[in-house]
Amino acid sequence: MRDQADFTVQADDDGALTIALTGPLVVSSVGTLDPRLRQLEGPVRQIDLSGVREIDTTGAWTVWRLARDNAAQITGASEEAERLIAALRPLRGEGAIVPEELPLLTRVPAFVGNYMIALGRGTLGILEFMGGMLVAAWAITFGRSRLRVNAVVRQVELVGVTALPIVGLMSFLVGIVIAQQGAVQLQDLGFGEMTVNLVGRISLRELGILMTAIMVAGRSGSSFAAQIGTMKLTEEIDAMRTIGVSPMEALVIPRVLAAILVMPLLGFYSALLSIIGGAAISTLTLDIPFWTFITRVQEVVPTHDLWVGLIKGPVFGLIIALTGCYQGMQVKGNSEEVGHRTTVAVVQAIFAVIVLDAFFAVFFTEIGWG
What pLDDT does 173 receive? Predict the structure, then answer.
């Protein structure tokens, strides 16, 4: 353990203090010294540095500030200490800790302007990223580059197969909640049997695919951003370009393709588990037999509700994968940026999914699939 800096105090007949500093005056050892020096009472006449073995800029500034504030004389300083203190003498150390804020009428327009500039640059960056992905997809489609099938299968496993337990449990519980809460309201109106319609339609049409998309965004979208961001930070992506491997073809395309393929299947699986959960709780609370509930779902839920969920799946998967990969590619500077970009990827993906879901709701209603 490193020695800490210390001092002794000797008072003259007239009450003036002579401070003798000892030990290393470096940044790692003066942490407790400065508060103790500030608590001294009485004028300081002399600061003796003959017992100081080592000094850096932090220690020199501590000595110089004490001497400046008390008009004290510095004695016993080594050549190194004198050189550092001489370099610090012109500095006053009186700058503001917090920068002064602009007036409100200036600050608000400046914030809005900076935000709009950042939004425009972000939009251009996304368009550039999508253009690069389309070029890579074009090259793969027409045989100029090969599709990395193993990478796609691996991503399908990570995004889809390993997500089955958590998505299934979540959907089953959501189905129970929908059936339970819906039954309470519908029974008051005398339409308890309509719980089957409620659970069946909302699971296949909306909640199955929407809850799955939110889960995949938090689970796989964040993973995409963190993995690619870490590779960007460690210059693995630059190394790939150096040896002639396209990061778009090797990293982005497999993840995007896997998400597009898996999302409809996960959404359908989620809807089925939600219906099963609703059937289970209805058997206990509504006296509707389990298989009667399942049969009734087949009768009351139109086929286009199933197609609505299946159509949304690939679009949601594309948005989630694109957002995660794009944010991962934007990482630069330090490891903190990886966490920041991962958070942004999840937030943007969930926001985009909800906005698109609202658009789909209006669109399918307008074409008669309401």
Answer: 93
Residue 368's SS3 state is coil
Cα separations (Å) of 75 from 20, 45, 47, 72, 364? 9, 11, 6, 10, 86
Confidence of residue 1 (pLDDT cuts 50, 70, 90): very low
* pTM listed for this prediction: 0.73
Q: How many CA atoms lie within 13 A of 242 on its CB side?
A: 5
DSSP for 115-161, written as a single string = HHHHHHHHHHHHHHHHHHHHHHHHHHHTTSS---HHHHHHHHHHHTG
Cβ atoms of residues 369 and 308 within 8 Å: yes
Residue 171: band (very low, low, confident or very high) from pLDDT cuts 50, 70, 90: very high
305 and 205 Cβ atoms separated by less than 8 Å: yes
Nearest to 182 by CA among 166, 168, 199: 199
Closest CA to 25 of 69, 73, 80, 62: 62
d(CA 369, CA 310): 13
Rounded to the nearest 10 degrees, the angle between the axes of helix 57-70 and helix 79-88 is: 70
Nearest Cα to 346, choosing from 191, 199, 201, 229? 229
